[in-house]
Amino acid sequence: MAPMDAPELDLLIGPTACGKSAVALELARRRGGEILSVDSMKLYRRLEIGVAKPSEAERAAVRHHLIDWKDPWESCSVAEWLAEAERIAAEARARGAWLLAEGGTALYVKALREGLFEGPGRDPGLRARLDEEADARGAGALHARLKALDPRAAAKILPGDRRRIVRALEVQMLTGRPISERQAQWGALRRDLVTRVVVLTMERKELYRRIDARVARMLDAGWLEECRRLRELPKPLSREARQALGYRTLFAHLDGALGLDEARQRICYDTHHFARRQLMWFRKFPEVSWIEARPDEDPSRVADRAAEAFAALRAR
Q: Which fold has domain 124-185?
């Protein structure tokens, strides 16, 4: 049981391209609220089109937090993001503002709801060596090594989830103890922050159609030119920023390794896979409410049902 005076936070989450940003904007407008972005890529400046940031008009209509927070050559850990998110939530509460957290980065959602386990800091040299090995042999080879060292952790991490595999190996190699052992405290909802979670989803075929259409719109809107500008920055993108969906593929196209149509198809395929992974994560979350958006349903109608779902969670 959480303390009676524990702060509260509503979260609207869902897979990429399901329409959650439009629904969040509608909910925030109705309540005169603000939006906390729960997205590990929208926090980077200069990554615009490919991460589907809200427009200037949308940001002018509703205050957004943790968008354009970091330069693209900077790193950002989950712990750093969580500390800033908690600060923003406390500050909004002190002002009496309703804050809606919205996004699809599952690890950020998990951290908000459960806190973070105590682990060692990063070792840049070790990470660089692991990244070089992943580049040379593939993330699957690192996953196989993790499976031999820590089968419990490997069972929870997909073979293609390079970032989490590298972190698990880093913890093992720095401490001599498996990350699964250190994460034993994880899994219970924290008591110092009450979270209510509504997951927006839709039928898989429709979701894939929307993903493909959005990728085409992004390319038409100048995504490739954005990638050219990023390559001209005075510093290279950070390891985290390079993980943004589609950017590495378009960089490969600019290097002549892929044709543009092949790059587009690969981005669509990778985004389909990413959406499936997001849904796998969300299905593991306890005490959430699911709502399904219908094809071409107006965001205001979806917002009606999301508001009802939040009200039902609040009444429990």
A: Histone, subunit A (1.10.20)
Region(s) of the chain under CATH 1.10.20.140: 124-185
Cross-strand partners of 95:
none
Q: What is the pLDDT of residue 119?
A: 64
Residue with tokens 């959650």: 20
Residue spans in the chain of domains classed CATH 3.40.50.300: 8-115+194-315
Per mean pLDDT, which range of 91-100, 165-174, 275-284 is the poorest?
165-174
CA distances from 285 to 11, 134, 152 (A): 12, 29, 18
CB contact at 8 A, 254 and 227: yes
Q: What is the pLDDT of residue 160?
A: 83
Strand, coil or helix: 165: helix
Strand order in 64-65's β-sheet?
64-65, 34-38, 99-103, 8-13, 194-201, 288-292
Query: CB atoms < 10 A from the CB of 197, how many?
Result: 23
| Residue 234, number of CB atoms within 10 A of its CB | 5
pLDDT at position 281: 93
Number of neighbouring beta carbons within 10 Å of residue 236: 12
DSSP 88-149: HHHHHHHHT--EEEEE--HHHHHHHHH---------HHHHHHHHHHHHHH-HHHHHHHHHHH
**Segment 3-53, tens digit of pLDDT:** 456 789 999 999 999 999 999 999 999 999 999 999 999 999 999 999 999
What's the average model confidence in pLDDT over 278-289? 95
> DSSP secondary-structure letter at 9?
E
Is the domain covering 8-115+194-315 a CATH 2.30.180.10 domain?
A: no
Please return the burial class of 3, using the count of CB atoms within 10 Å of its CB with bins 0-12, 13-18 and 19+.
exposed
Give the pTM.
0.82
Paired residues of 34 in beta bridges = 99
